Amino acid sequence: MKDNTTAEVIIRVRGLKNQFGSHVVHENLDLDVCRGEILGVVGGSGTGKSVLLRSIIGLQKPTSGSIEVFGIDVLADAEAARDTLDERWGVMFQDGALFSSLTVRENVEVPMRAIQGLAPTLRRELADLKISMVGLEYLAGDKYPSELSGGMRKRAGLARALALDPEIVFLDEPTAGLDPIGAAAFDDLIRNLSRSLGLTVFLVTHDLDTLHAICDRIAVLADRKVLATGTLEDMLGVDDPWVREYFHGPRARAAFKPSSPDVASGEDP
Ligand SMILES: Nc1ncnc2c1ncn2[C@@H]1O[C@H](COP(=O)(O)OP(=O)(O)OP(=O)(O)O)[C@@H](O)[C@H]1O
């Protein structure tokens, strides 16, 4: 999903302002998210990426502005909107945010408990299905979060975010704290789930590899607003000091470097 000119906008943020005391985090922030895309939200530390995510899902009441998700005004009545929308989106916070006293399976079952008439045996089977979808072995369902590695906890958090077959998943720094191999595997998982389930993914990240590997579009937060949106290629042409530093710096060059054909083919140079 790269062409957003004809795409259906399912999240529409307009004129968003978030202010804490005298600290204005967002002002006149506009953003569209289109169905089926993987949108990477980047920006310097403290630019308000998490506050934006929390505003969209109704956990943070903005100072002003409007936010529509599937055409529903999230701010008009946050509680009513959440009741309607909670089944249509899933959220994975940075550390997985699992209940430590529940097993992985029980964690995944938590959102399903809201479904009236869903028999416990079916709920359990559905939870096991989600657990396998995120690449966790079957036995992981019986484990407690403390018994899992960081990468497994993230996968468990993703399984819970997928519990109600959402149309959108919000991921807050999904690869933070993972080693490069684990992070690449998690990127693959997100891309495969997005493609196979038609999921829209709103992904806050600092990870240049993730942007390069899976994001259809990037939104850069700077100067209290969305400074630029577009493909990775578009970002390379944005004339802004932070954007230049971020997308042209040495780490970016390493992440975006095309793999050498010699290395890819395994042949000697
Ligand atoms: N509930 C709150 N009360 C007061 N200030 C807050 C609150 N939530 C966030 N902030 C402030 O808003 C700013 C943006 O925070 P946010 O966590 O969204 O940044 P971020 O872009 O996600 O940063 P990072 O990349 O470091 O995670 C920060 O200065 C933070 O201290």
UniProtKB/TrEMBL annotation:
Nucleotide-binding found in the keyword field: yes
Alphabetized Pfam families for the sequence: ABC_tran
Tell me one GO molecular function of this protein: ATP hydrolysis activity
Keywords assigned by UniProt? ATP-binding, Nucleotide-binding, Transport
What the entry lists under Gene3D superfamilies is as follows: P-loop containing nucleotide triphosphate hydrolases
Mind telling me which InterPro entries this protein's record contains? AAA+_ATPase, ABC_transporter-like_ATP-bd, ABC_transporter-like_CS, P-loop_NTPase
Which superkingdom is the protein from?
Bacteria
For the ABC transporter domain, which residue ranges apply? 11-248
Q: What is this protein called?
A: ATP-binding cassette domain-containing protein
